[in-house]
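Narrative progress, year one. The postdoctoral researcher (J.K.) led the effort to move from monomer predictions toward full complexes, under supervision of the PI. The following entry was the first complex the group processed end to end, covering 941 residues in total.
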Amino acid sequence: MKNFFLSSITTPPKGSRSLAAQLGYCFAVIIVILIVISMTITSAYTKVLEQDRADSLQTTAVISALAVSNTTLQDGMQFPIPVSTYSNNGLLTNYIVNIYKNAGRSFLRVYTSAAAETVTADQVTLDGASNSYLKAFDQQEAVVVTRTDKTGSHVAGVAPVIGSEGTVSGLVEVMMPVSDFNSTRNGLSLSWIFTILSIAAALSIVYFEIHKLLTTMFGQPDRQLPKIIRYGLSGCQSIAFFSAMACSMPPLVISSYLLSSSNAGRLPAFMPAPVTVLLAGLLFALGFFGFNGLRHFFVRRFTTRISLIIAIFISFVLLLVSSLFSNVYLYLLLLLPTGFSLGMVFYFQREYRIYASRLGYEEFSERIIHTTQYTGYLLGACVGAVLAGIIYERFGLAAVSLICGCVLFIVGIQALLFVQHCPPSSSPPLHLPDFLYALLSKKSGTFIWSCVIATGIQVGFYFVFIPSFLNSAGLSLATISFYFILFSFVGSVLIRALLKLFPNRINMRGRIMLSSVLQTAGLLLMSFMPTARVLVITVVLMGAALGLHEFRYLDYYKEMIREDKHALAREILERGFAVGAVIGSIGYGALYLTDNIRLSLLLFTVIMTILLFAYPLISLLYTSSHPDGATHGSSDKDTQSPFEGYQDSVGYGSPQEQRNAEAPPTGHYYPGGYSGGEYPRETPYDAPREDSNQISYGQDQYNTYGRDVSEEGDRK
Amino acid sequence: MPFQVEQQTEPKSASAVLKIIVLALFAVVTAIVSVSFAANHLKSGFEKEYVVQVNLKTEQLSAACSRLISGDEISSDPAKSLERYASLLPAMLIDSGETNQSRKIYGLYAYTNGALTPLIQSSSTGLLAVETPVSDWLTTESNPYKIEKSGQTTVLTPIKDSQGKVVGLFELSSTYSFLSTFGNAVERRVLMSVLVAVAAGIGLFSLQFIIPEIIRITRQKGRRY
């Protein structure tokens, strides 16, 4: 024990132990500091509030005593003026007014404004009174005292009543419960504790990410690897983190900025605040998720890295201009191009993912990169939400834009350093008729609507609904980070751990069904009880629902469509997600157009339920109508659609079904052939990566098979 | 995992120093920003709560006082009413001493021929009734008219006689200009305390790295002699 103690003193912590100590210290110190200052400020202001409440009690008692002066104090008398009220946590509550008649060295109550059920018919003497009552009576002065009787503790303003003879005949007591006297709406409330926790967590996360960024920057890259992956997944995750951090800040402050502009009278009369928020959300979503053709053009014209740098510079300028002029019209006008420029940062990462996954390294498969980036996005959004809330509330919109721009410049530097070579992907263009055709397909189209578009819609929940909701509930924008952290924890930690603990227990259809149930339950709960506390449950359910897919939709979708359409699969799902996000920004923004949030949210939930359950229901109907496992592809009607495939009967993750799938059903079109020898396999996702890489990314299969040719020479 | 760059080599001393400086600066800046936000958030929340409370108090006191003022007295004999209310109003609207920092000021006016004549004014500054257009407070409903300025809430309550005719005006203002000064002082004090706490925290935290170095150097010197 002595040796251990000595060694821990003589050996400084190193490596991950040192980092863990720093993070723990950072988290604990921030929490302690924030709690201590909250308590200090709360106690200082509570004292000020109490002083004013005492003044109210005293003045009201004096006025009440003057109102009953020159009258005879007797049982059954009426109080001549209405009983005054005070504000108790936003609710108006009546003071309790008692009038006492002097009876020797005691006082008899002759009137009370207390509720009838708490008043007895018997004569009541003043109970629990201190000498201050006698002093008020004898010296004819108004006092504020605390009195405890069988009904509880009260703070009372006491004033003497001057009778018709010019002498003191009794006392008027105006009182309120001690709990109301000491209470405050602010201070260490539950929502504030949530906010403190999320601030501490977010700052620890960003500390960790900066530490990781510096370590990656100062570390030696593996020069044996292709340029794009030399800095490993750390570099990739770091870019994802900082880009999500920067890109989440502008959309989160939209509603706060526009609502404060509305309160300041800077919005035109014909444009109510909810309409403006809806319009702003739509413009940003359209810019951020739309215009893929234009992005593709820029990337091809300037290369991915240069177009990223240009986009970052333009975003910075646009953000700064829109915030410095503080003009709502200009702000709205610039949201679309700002969204587009910020969307380029994510488009760059998509290109990175596609290119890096094509190199054929197991550690850089598309799902691993996507999961790594997703983790970065979630963490970045959590930190971005805290920073947006803190900076906007304290320093205003211009500071948010400035910080966002600075973080974007860090992303630019990271991109130049970590991604030294990233040619644009050569996906075939997805024309609108093709996309519509894909959406209209009976089963695969329904899958897109139920899973991909619905997931996109839920982006609106986090970036449009929650900020507006917190604003309407009077909570700080920084509190949003708590919900983001909760979502990330449930979706990326809890659900992922459960799926790893119980692998192959639930197939893809089951996951989709479960996801639909959880999302619907969350939305229903929220529509019945739209409070910040219920939002916690909704976010937990949403997090669980949206963490179930594990980025397997693309593989699953490919199994549903014909193989010659595989090249379009990614584009279709991406566009579906983008369409969903735009619909979500409209849908969730429209909820605030009416005053009754319950009703509008309930209607929205009904629509979402239909959308979410469409695919599971169609799936069930299909299975029940083909009990022998024959697929829908065998029907004449379905084979007319090029997006309907042949893999309907494959159970994703279901070992029994996979064992049976040794040969494809007859009567189907298999342009890519069937590698029957590869079945059975553990899961359908364990198929050789080369196959999917070769076809699905729209590359020329002769020069991009497995690895990028341009990298070969570099490696040699 | 050959791709985890951070595991490959230990950073050199120069980069390690740079890393420590950047991280320490970041920790200090974020701590200050988060504390500044928290202090400001709480301050603005409490200020809003205080203003709501003072507004309600002013409205309630003004309503109660105006019920005790007789409109008939003001219209029939302004001189007598001046004498009566000059002693009554100060007794009703006392400021509760040094503990409470908000102050009450009031005025009583006779309203004749479309103009206000001051009867009683507790302060020569801060009263707004005379400079407020009559049309603002003289409405058909004769409801109290509230004016909110920075650090002050004023309620103008029309006084009616027994015929229901408006014959006077009672003005009650609560001033709370101390609030912003108080808030700024609290915020400044908290920020200073946090600066000291963070600096001390970093110092204490670095002890775990400094002490082993000192022990190592001491041991090396001990072996040398």
